[in-house]
């Protein structure tokens, strides 16, 4: 429980629309009359429908007498820091010390550039803000006799006269969600101002840790930094009080333009939050009691446990493709707490058990209805060790891993979406953008720490518990909860080639045969995925290809792409150089998960796209059903590992065929015609269960060995909800 020692304060976040300008000011005056402590406004100078925020702040300051005023947050690229420093200081002097500087890096770069501002990358925008803080603080240091000089990459100042000094120490609050910005807050700023609707479970705690560590390293007391939060009228006093107690937030700012909601927040919600927080801090609330089926949850887990109706529970009711409504979500933060969670789950074998890493799996088996979910998303550390080895928590996401490794010139081949959790993929296979060059993700796993069904924490590697290590690489969900991995990364250039090609083939089957041959003959640096929807009668097929070429040389990229581009008429194409980490970067909204119901997904692995296979796929595409078919490259370096080296066995397969959606009788019949052509299946993309599906997932010798190991490591069958291996059938 963070204890930063700040008194609780409350504020409003008002939209500065210019259609009724006086109404905006009236809402600010109402905020003061209702007893709020601060009034804030968003800052989008390129929005023609908005008032200029700085002009509005000065007007509101003149119309009020007590309340503090701030941008939420000011757009730095369009507000030069030297001018901003003097503007803020002047407003603070004129208002009697009521100015606050809420500041951000900016966004919407096309709009900023359209206003004459700079266009910056995410990294550049953070560096620019870092320099801007020095400029602003430098001008505010009016008592310093020397002129201000700063020769930065983005801002050059001086020699310039300092001053004026503000009427009080104006706090600088930064709006941010990323670790680099959070470290900047710890070093130089006075407050952290995120928005609750954009946060994921654990983000506040993670952000606080980063800020506190950075502050300590800079010789600052973390208690100097205020923790703020933009909230909505729908957030309850109980939930916000819990955030105040558990995460140290002391300033809550409600986003609303409704006078009644502002009054209710100021007079009712704020009062209840104060009462609840005072009660908790006085020791009247010793802890949170949570029980499932009448069985109390261990104290170490209870504070973060979620049951239906709790704030945060909704995050675990939807993955990317499947919904659920678990009766209890346990959110351990350490391997020891994972052990407690597994032991608790073992007492409730009568309900489903889900293991949640990233929630991206097509099968959606990390969630359930009415059962227990052990969510590992707090175990998300990524640590670069000696050489190319990396220790990664099972709850990390591959996009975060790629960004962490990028400065080292390293990467780990790992799927094709940044939101995929490490734990699910690194225990199944891992067919990524470098698969033909570097093999599967599991081929680079050197050890895994596992909490077994008995609740023991076990280290598995080639030297320790090698049988368990073998099983965890391809069938891990059956044998325990992976909490961390040590994985060997591989070198990667600063950029790779990424192509998006859209084909309009006259004959889909012929195109697929040609694609298969071209990919198998391509340089190992080339990996490609086809995305195809059903073909409507009388309309041409459209096939999208996503291709990565692991090279920084433009001529080499074009040379290696040409055999693919020549396969059929192109109706659209794009080829660009970009960092590998950018391929896994999530776009706006991509982190949200809204899956509902039960998905239908099938998968199969084939050695070659033969004529028979291509014709069967073409027949599938002609069915009257809605689905997306993908054909992903495998092969290449995958075959360099022996088939019996890991539980994943299908080393000779060059392609993974997966279909999401469908479900109509014609679709299912067409899919069944593909089954005899498959080598095997890929677990994470298959929703069928039962003995037949299991037999397609593992060759007979592998399955016999897995059943023997299941009897040894999970004799009660605790881990049974993700392609359960039933040793009773051995």
Could you characterize the architecture of this molecule?
With 730 residues, the chain is of the alpha/beta class.
Which descriptors would you attach to this protein?
730 residues, alpha/beta, 9-stranded parallel β-sheet, 7-stranded antiparallel β-sheet, 32% helix
Helix content: 25-40%
User: What's the overall average pLDDT, rounded?
Assistant: 91
Number of continuous helical runs: 22
Structural class: alpha/beta
Radius of gyration: 28 Å
How many beta strands in the DSSP annotation?
A: 30
**How would you write the strand order of the largest sheet?**
3-2-1-11-10-9-8-5-4
Largest sheet: 9 strands, parallel
Q: Quick one: overall form?
A: globular
Q: List low-pLDDT spans.
A: none
Strand percent estimate:
15-25%
Distance between the termini: 50 Å
Short summary:
With 730 residues, the protein is an alpha/beta fold. Helix content is 32%, strand content 20%.
Write the layout of secondary structure elements.
Blueprint: E1 9-14, H1 21-33, E2 38-41, H2 53-63, E3 68-71, E4 74-75, H3 81-95, E5 101-104, H4 109-114, H5 122-140, E6 148-151, E7 156-160, E8 172-174, H6 179-188, E9 191-192, H7 203-217, E10 226-231, H8 237-247, E11 251-255, H9 259-281, E12 291-292, E13 295-296, H10 299-302, E14 328-330, H11 335-346, E15 353-356, E16 372-375, E17 382-384, E18 389-393, H12 398-405, E19 410-411, H13 422-425, H14 435-438, E20 445-451, E21 457-461, H15 466-475, E22 481-488, E23 490-491, E24 496-503, H16 508-521, E25 526-532, E26 543-549, H17 554-565, E27 570-578, H18 580-583, E28 601-606, H19 611-621, E29 627-633, E30 655-661, H20 665-674, H21 691-697, H22 700-713
Parallel strand pairs: 1-2, 1-11, 2-3, 4-5, 5-8, 8-9, 9-10, 10-11, 14-16, 15-16
Antiparallel strand pairs: 6-7, 12-13, 17-18, 18-22, 19-23, 20-21, 20-22, 24-26, 24-27, 25-26, 25-29, 28-30, 29-30
Helix pairs in contact: 3-5, 6-7, 8-9, 16-19, 19-20
């Amino acid at each position: 429980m963070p204890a930063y020692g700040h008194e609780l304060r409350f504020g409003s976040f008002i939209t500065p629309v210019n259609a009724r300008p006086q109404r905006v000011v009236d809402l600010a005056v109402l905020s003061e009359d209702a007893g709020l402590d601060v009034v804030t406004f968003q800052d989008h100078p390129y929005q023609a429908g908005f008032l200029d925020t700085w002009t509005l702040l000065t007007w509101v300051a003149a119309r009020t007498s007590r309340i503090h005023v701030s941008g939420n947050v000011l757009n730095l690229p369009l507000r030069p820091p030297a001018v901003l420093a003097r503007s803020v200081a002047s407003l603070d002097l004129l208002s009697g010390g009521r100015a606050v500087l809420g500041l951000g890096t900016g966004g919407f770069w096309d709009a900023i550039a359209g206003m004459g501002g700079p266009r910056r990358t995410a990294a550049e925008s953070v560096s620019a803000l870092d320099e801007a803080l020095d400029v602003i603080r430098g001008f505010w240091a009016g008592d310093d006799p020397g002129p201000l000089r700063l020769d930065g990459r983005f801002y050059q100042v001086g020699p310039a006269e300092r001053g004026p000094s503000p009427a009080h120490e104006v706090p600088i609050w930064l709006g941010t969600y990323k670790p680099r910005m959070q470290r900047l807050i710890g070093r130089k700023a006075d407050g952290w101002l995120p928005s609750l609707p954009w946060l994921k479970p654990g983000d506040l705690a993670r952000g606080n840790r980063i800020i506190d560590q950075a502050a300590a390293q800079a010789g600052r007391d973390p208690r100097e930094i205020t923790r703020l939060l933009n909230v909505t009228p729908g957030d309850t006093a109980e939930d916000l009080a819990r955030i105040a107690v558990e995460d140290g937030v002391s300033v809550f700012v409600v986003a609303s333009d409704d006078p009644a909601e502002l009054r209710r927040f100021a007079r009712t919600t704020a009062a209840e939050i104060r009462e609840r927080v005072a009660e908790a801090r006085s020791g009247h609330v010793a802890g949170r009691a949570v029980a499932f089926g009448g069985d109390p949850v261990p104290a170490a887990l209870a504070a973060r446990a979620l049951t239906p109706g709790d704030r945060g529970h909704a995050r675990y009711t939807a993955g990317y493709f499947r919904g659920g409504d678990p009766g209890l979500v346990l959110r351990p933060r350490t391997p020891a707490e994972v052990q407690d969670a597994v032991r608790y789950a073992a007492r409730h074998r009568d309900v489903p058990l889900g293991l949640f890493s990233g929630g991206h799996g097509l099968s959606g088996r990390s969630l359930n209805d009415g059962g227990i979910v052990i969510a590992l998303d707090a175990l998300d550390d990524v640590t670069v060790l000696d050489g190319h080895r990396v220790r990664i928590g099972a709850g990390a996401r591959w996009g975060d891993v790629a960004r962490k490794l990028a400065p080292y010139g390293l990467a780990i081949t790992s799927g094709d979406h940044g939101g995929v959790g490490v734990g699910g993929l690194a225990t199944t296979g891992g067919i990524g953008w470098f698969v033909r060059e570097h093999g599967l993700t599991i081929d680079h796993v050197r050890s895994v720490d596992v909490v077994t069904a008995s609740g023991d924490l076990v280290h598995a590697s080639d030297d320790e518990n090698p049988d368990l290590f073998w099983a965890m690489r391809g069938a891990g969900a059956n044998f325990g909860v992976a909490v961390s991995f040590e994985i060997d990364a591989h070198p990667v250039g600063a950029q790779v080639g990424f192509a998006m090609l859209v084909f309009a083939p006259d004959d889909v089957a012929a195109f697929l045969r040609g694609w298969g041959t071209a990919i198998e003959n391509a340089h190992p640096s080339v990996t490609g995925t086809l995305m195809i929807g059903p073909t409507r009668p009388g309309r041409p097929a459209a096939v999208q290809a996503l291709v990565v070429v692991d090279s920084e040389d433009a001529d080499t990229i074009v040379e290696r792409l040409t055999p693919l581009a020549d396969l059929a008429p192109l109706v659209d194409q794009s080829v660009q150089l970009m960092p590998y980490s950018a391929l896994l970067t999530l776009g706006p909204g991509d982190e949200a998960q809204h899956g509902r119901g039960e998905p239908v997904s099938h998968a199969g692995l084939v050695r070659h796209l033969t004529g028979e296979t291509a014709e069967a796929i073409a027949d599938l595409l002609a069915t009257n059903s809605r689905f997306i078919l993908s054909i992903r490259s495998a092969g290449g370096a995958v075959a360099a590992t022996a088939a019996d080296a890991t539980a994943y066995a299908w080393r000779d397969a060059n392609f993974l065929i997966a279909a999401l959606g469908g479900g109509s009788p014609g679709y299912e019949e067409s899919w069944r015609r593909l089954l005899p052509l498959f080598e095997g299946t890929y677990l994470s993309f298959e929703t069928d269960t039962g003995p037949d599906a299991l037999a397609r997932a593992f060759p007979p010798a592998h399955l016999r060995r897995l059943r023997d190991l299941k009897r040894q490591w999970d004799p009660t069958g605790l881990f049974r909800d993700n392609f359960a291996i039933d040793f009773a059938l051995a």
